[in-house]
């Protein structure tokens, strides 16, 4: 019999990845995960910011970065400033780094929604690729005579139904995030 569990797991992983990508999208409120993409060169190695500092968001418009080693303050500030996709201008007082998060303009909100919709399309492409893999392996199994023509049709119907459900879940997650982004 043809096993679709591996493909279900791949689709769930695609949804989880999409959810983690949505968490990175800026919505106007400061959040420590906004700095997840920042990598800092310390001790001769490029490391994620959260491994060399403590990151908090004490208020809606501010992120505080407290380095574990105060000697790295200038390097951390430069790394945050150099990440052009963030557009932040951090300031430090010798002990910690303050990263003001400016409020989003209407134009910037629309731009963020557009970028997020590209992530939606990428997630759906991943689902379609998984569907193609399932159908390819199912047709191969039919050629090898391990499944029948009826089994193949059942698998196609089942996978199409699952893809439709997962796609609807992605759309629902996007609508929720879009509302969050556009809310002033």
UniProtKB/TrEMBL annotation:
It comes from the Bacteria. The keyword Coiled coil applies. The keyword Coiled coil applies. Residues 113-158 form a coiled coil. Keywords: Coiled coil, Cytoplasm, Protein biosynthesis. Residues 19-182 form the Ribosome recycling factor domain. It is found in: Cytoplasm. PANTHER family: MITOCHONDRIAL RIBOSOME RECYCLING FACTOR PSEUDO 1 (PTHR20982:SF3), RIBOSOME RECYCLING FACTOR (PTHR20982). HAMAP family: RRF. Belongs to the RRF family. Responsible for the release of ribosomes from messenger RNA at the termination of protein biosynthesis. May increase the efficiency of translation by recycling ribosomes from one round of translation to another. This is Ribosome-recycling factor. It comes from Candidatus Nanogingivalis gingivitcus.
């Amino acid at each position: 019999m043809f096993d679709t569990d591996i493909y279900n797991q791949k689709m769930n992983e695609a949804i989880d990845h999409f959810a983690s990508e949505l968490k990175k999208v800026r919505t106007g409120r400061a959040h420590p995960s906004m700095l997840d993409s920042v990598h800092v060169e310390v001790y001769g190695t490029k490391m994620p910011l959260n491994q060399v500092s403590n990151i908090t968001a004490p208020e809606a418009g501010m992120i505080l970065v407290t380095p574990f080693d105060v000697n790295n303050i200038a390097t951390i500030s430069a790394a945050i400033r150099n990440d052009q996709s963030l557009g932040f201008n951090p300031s430090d007082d010798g002990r910690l780094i303050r990263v003001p998060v400016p409020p989003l303009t209407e134009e910037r909100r629309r731009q963020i929604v557009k970028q997020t919709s590209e992530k939606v399309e990428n997630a759906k492409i991943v689902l379609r690729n998984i569907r193609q893999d399932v159908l390819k392996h199912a047709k191969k199994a039919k050629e090898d005579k391990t499944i029948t023509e009826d089994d193949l049709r059942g698998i196609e119907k089942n996978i199409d139904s699952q893809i439709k459900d997962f796609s609807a879940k992605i759309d629902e997650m996007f609508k929720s995030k879009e509302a969050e982004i556009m809310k002033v």
